[in-house]
Amino acid sequence: MRIRPAIHDDLPALLMIHNDAVRNSAAIWLVEEDTLDDRRAWFETRTKQGFPVFVAEAADGTFLGYASYGPYKEKSGYDLTVEHSVYVMPEAHGSGAGSALLKALIAQAREDGYHVMIAGIDSLNDGSIRFHERFGFKTSGVLPQVGFKYNRWLDLVIMTLILNEGATPPAHVYPD
Fold first, then answer.
1. What is the CA angle 56-33-65, rounded to 5?
2. Contacts (Cβ under 8 Å, ≥6 apart) of 99
């Protein structure tokens, strides 16, 4: 298995797995599928802002999944916090692709100097919650009924991983 930065040629595969998650799971709280132009805009925004988009592929080049992180919130006090996503093709579940992708994201976030990585997970997705726990993520809270899909309210589990324990926050200079 190989983890590498995504390129424009990967967009159809990224679109396919994204839309599969939209259609078949509560992992993405959307009801309308993206277009190729939507995914292209997402990809270009992520890379322009300096955020990674990684792809996992099998030795034969088969697409297994992708992962990325981006800003948690746009306010400056959150500049050292990122929110991530990991998506693996259904047929690649259990292959180690998700673990390899998350390891790559965590390493990149540390290298980039981020302090906290956040996961927002549907409360019924026990597999994703256990997956994140294996990497040291801790449940920080549950936001009840903040979303909806499939004619039901969705609770959001917020999980966090502190990337550099003991770091002190940067000093901010406030204008006069």
1. 5
2. 131, 134, 135
pLDDT tens per residue across span 124-161: 999 999 999 999 999 999 999 999 999 999 999 999 99
| Alpha-carbon span 123 to 148, nearest angstrom | 12
Q: Pairing mode, if any, of strands 81-88 and 116-122?
A: parallel
> Which pTM value belongs to this model?
0.92
Determine if residue 150 is left, alpha or beta; phi over 0 gives left, psi from -120 to 50 gives alpha, anything else beta: left
CA–CA–CA angle 45, 46, 52 (5° rounding): 160
Contacts of 116 (CB under 8 A, 6+ apart): 72, 80, 81, 82, 160, 161, 162, 163
Please state the CATH superfamily assignment of the domain spanning residues 2-162 in this structure. Gcn5-related N-acetyltransferase (GNAT) (3.40.630.30)
Q: Which helix (H) or strand (E) holds 69?
A: strand 63-71
